[in-house]
Amino acid sequence: GLERGAKNQFSTFSNFITTINQKKEGIGNRNSPTQLVIPNIKNVRDLPPICLDVRQKQRISIDTLPQELKAPIPPEPSLPIRTKTVKDFQDDVEKAKSSGDWRAVHDFYSTTFDSFLEINAAFKKDTDSPFNTIEDSGINAKFVNVVYDALLNTPQDVQKSVLKGIINGLLQEWKGPRTKDDLRAYCILLQNPQFSNTSTYVIYAHLLRQIAALTEADHHFLVHWSKKISQRRFKQLVDRLLQFISLRLFPAKPEEFPPMVKCSWWIPSATKVLALFNAANSLISPPIISYTDFYNSTLDHIDLMEEYHNWQCYGNSHRFSFCQYPFIISIAAKKVIIQRDSEQQMISIARQSLVDKVSRRQKPDMNMLFLNVKVRRTHLVSDSLDELARKKADLKKKLKVTFVGEAGLDMGGLTKEWFLLLIRQIFHPDYGESSCMFLSTIFKCDNYSEFRLVGALMGLAVYNSITLDIRFPPCCYKKLLSPPIVPCDHSTLVGICDVTLDDLFQIMPELAHGLSELLAYEGNVEEDFYSTFQVFQEEFGVIKSYNLKPNGDKIPVTNQNRKEYVQLYVDFLLNKSIYKQFAAFYYGFHSVCASYALLLLRPEEVEILVCGSPELDMSALQRSTQYEGYQKTDLTIRYFWDVVLGFSLDLQKKLLHFATGSDRVPVGGMADLNFKISKSETSTNWLPVAHTCFNQLCLPPYKNKKELKQKLIIGISNAEGFGLE
């Protein structure tokens, strides 16, 4: 088949890699296009420009590129005249299938893929037009798709001729900057389905290497052209690159590939090309595919902390790290990095406290190693905020909670209970209400210290790996990562991000609806609305006016400028008018969570880390549950799951809270809870007992399902408070 044929083909065009290396040596010190160039950037915060998730969220524009990137566009060479159409090609394929004579098809493939010029001659929509803009690649996508869809069903000699032609194209000597025809050829070759087969990976790797080594201006064109690819084929391209990276990391047959020491550039090249597709995906709203489709779960099984430390130490120098391209790292893997980074910070802070104590010749005390929070249940909010305000210096220590008057020892369960009750009282005065109210309350409050403490509380939850039952609007997480690292210059603005009308809908739906109607209004906006670029806002019972732009009170809103008016109004509401309040919240959060690991996160991922998942899958919990003293086939266990799976969502959440101290599902899903059911040797008259520190439920062997259900509901519905057995 293809695999065997392709392998034989590799041996006939011997020493493909050697040939490339010889060409590189012949060039001397001049940069070779086959060499992946990662910018030598000393500052760890300045990450690869194409990786939009790490840098400031800015779009690369050809007009704003530095002068050195605006290389003169070389003249396009004359293309051969090729007149074959999609229908002509399809007719040739049908004739070949019926007659068995594939010569015409073979000639087409071998000619078309023999060079970049021939690729353009076949697939360029108009060979006389330059197509030098980012808006139109000039590629006849339909023809490309038809040719590639037919390729894998052709005889082996046809498929081998395509691979041989690609090699010829890649081996050509390149001088000066690439033409747009070259970029078109790269764009077309990337879509070749043959590269899903591991036997073609040597060729695929060199194609990726050349694309990765293109200039930033050339990448800019490829990014914009890629966003025009259909969703299905775009997903196939991304999956192919992810598979290439996975199989190079963990090959099923190591002998298929050259030794890693000789092809260490394979993975960096593929990852950088994948970054181009990620950038293209982020340019479109809604995106072509979900950001989670770029996750490579294979990376969950490598030494992530080594990757993270390399990134911290070397930044974006010549040492590659997946952390330079965080879009490829799954949220589960990022959680591991953040957890371990937090643990290392906790150990470092505790060690420093111990050293300071000993250096002053004072007796060490175990309590000094922790952030000890002691609260009364009756004064939960005020006690908690007082404790956090008094112990600012200890916020990065391991959190331990004590409830006054209760004998429980905090092995994790009391901390989860404290967070749960505190969040309910702060954000849910009437528990059960929707709580996208946070930013709304900011408009009516100027107690900055309170916002800072609430930010610190949220930071503590992430730092101590606790999920919260809280639903901030999405733009809140965008603002928390603007920027992800607290700037050294305190005059730098924080918490300012790009906001849209969709963001306002989450907080002020009625106002957002009114603004959307203004944008859609078909009449004369100026005469019918009689509005200016001045807005009014009530603050503590006083109506105040604000100009959205200089002399805004004198500028009427018209059909021509209404988009600008809406954008400025939304920016005023979600950024400028609440700047001081949100800045306090931002600094509170980062006072605990300050870490370079935050550079790895998207706003959506911060939300998942803070909130976990509200979707309860009790069947998944059943599959991952461990048992002590019971077997999963025991009658009591079967009764238990029959009852639980029949519970309402509210009762299921109560059970989760009772057994684990939280009703939220962690990032890794139910399996990450390590839930255990143990047999309690007490009387069946007793209620179930839980050890929330260990996510353990102690269940007496109830005699029937009715009794188990009754006792379980009583237990989980009256579950505040801790004691010691």
From TrEMBL:
Cross-referenced PROSITE patterns: HECT (PS50237)
Domain annotation HECT: ranges: 391-725
Catalytic activity: S-ubiquitinyl-[E2 ubiquitin-conjugating enzyme]-L-cysteine + [acceptor protein]-L-lysine = [E2 ubiquitin-conjugating enzyme]-L-cysteine + N(6)-ubiquitinyl-[acceptor protein]-L-lysine
An individual GO BP term: protein polyubiquitination
Classification via Pfam families: HECT (PF00632)
Source superkingdom: Eukaryota
Residues the record marks as active site: C693
The protein, known as: HECT-type E3 ubiquitin transferase
